[in-house]
Write a structure and sequence with these properties.
Length: 111
């Protein structure tokens, strides 16, 4: 089977939790995520502390036009190797200043 190549956000590599991936992709609050995915706000809220169900991960991926395999890896259902996805590191020049500052703040523990 040939590997799928996709631009993979940092969260995809498994260095971040599912909720961090959701925040990075969605960039909005739980209510808006629930509306866009068709899921309950309580269900979306539970993602902060529990592993999501495969069907809700799929709903999230479809709602945000992300590959389902990418979301499954972010949720911890598969590894990148198991999914057959090749990781691509985005060029720093293509990452917004806001995203760079957010990542730097996260690494330094600054809120």
């Amino acid at each position: 089977m040939e590997a799928i190549t996709t631009a993979i956000p940092i969260a995809y590599t498994g260095r971040m939790a599912w909720w961090d991936y959701v925040q990075q992709i969605a960039g909005s609050n739980q209510t808006k995520i629930a509306e866009r995915t068709g899921l309950s706000q309580a269900g979306v809220s539970a993602w902060q502390s529990r592993t999501p169900k495969p069907e809700t991960v799929t709903a999230f991926a479809h709602a945000y036009n992300r590959p389902v395999l990418e979301a499954f890896v972010a949720a911890g259902f598969l590894t990148a190797d198991e999914a057959g996805v090749k990781e691509l590191t985005p060029s720093l020049a293509k990452i917004s200043s806001g995203d760079l500052l957010a990542e730097l703040s996260r690494r330094l523990g600054v809120n």
